[in-house]
Fold this sequence. Notes:
The protein is α/β, with parallel strands linked by helices. 37% of the residues lie in helices and 22% in strands. The protein is globular and about 60 Å long.
Amino acid sequence: VKFTDGGGITLRVFHTDSDPGTSNCSPDDGNLVFFEVEDTGIGIAEDEIERLFKYFEQTRSGLKTQTGTGLGLAISREYVRLMGGEMGVSSQVGVRTIFRFHLPVQRGRPKDKAIRPEAVNVVGLKSCGREYSLLVAEDESDSRYLLKQMLEKVGYTVREATNGAEALAAIQESRPHLVLMDGAMPVMDGLEATRRIKMSFHNIPVIMVTASALEEDRGKMLAAGADDVIRKPYREYDLLGSIQAQLGVEYVCCEDSAIVGGEISLLSPSVIPEALTALPADLIEEMREATINGYLDRLRYLLENVANYDGQLANGLRVLAERYEYDTLCHLFSREGK
């Protein structure tokens, strides 16, 4: 995405019983699944292709974006190789780049279907007459943003810090109910910050949110005083469950609902189009455009205006937006859906 300012990005997935370039894979052995990711970005010069998959190497295109470390493609190729496949690339400067890889798979059978635990859809905090404030200490702005959006959607008040030192200062000032602490941060890392928090504010729970998969690192975090350790990438309900265990809060969970004054109010799909008729046509059109373009922040802003007309409707639409049910929203905002 960061290399593509115009045009688009296409993902293709297809399968075959054998590799088009070989004859040593039969349907009895399994299948090959092929993946291609094509962009219309700035492309990669031919003399730099060999450097793409080397650790800590960046092409001129990568240096131009001023982001990344030169590890992403190297690690991605190793993952593909671990699964028995191979990754390749073709590119034309200023035209496109195509990354492709294949993976050997076997046909599944009904009895092989994995049974996954049901993910709980948390839509709010059960009203208890108090607000809960959380501090998110994370140096990566995207990670902070995702955490903040997820937690505020549920009903928590969120304050941010970009390193351990800022986190300590924020705790001195506002005394949050709980801290979500990244491990690796500049100025002061999460381990040292957690030690200091527990020395002065031992009653404030600290949950470490870390990219480290090493059990040894988990032990160090717990030894530093962390009350729990959540590994990235985390499931939303796992993180919210950890917070619930530390604070003793109760969540409102359901499928399609709106939260009004701390109470659940079921909003039938047949009611939403009827309620939309009371909104100005230009507001509905703006929400439709925001949905089509995937501008979630813009849609959230417009839903605040909807709340001035119908708070229950705004909350119902917000639930759909936060669950990325854009097809449903586009239908509701269309003339047929009104």
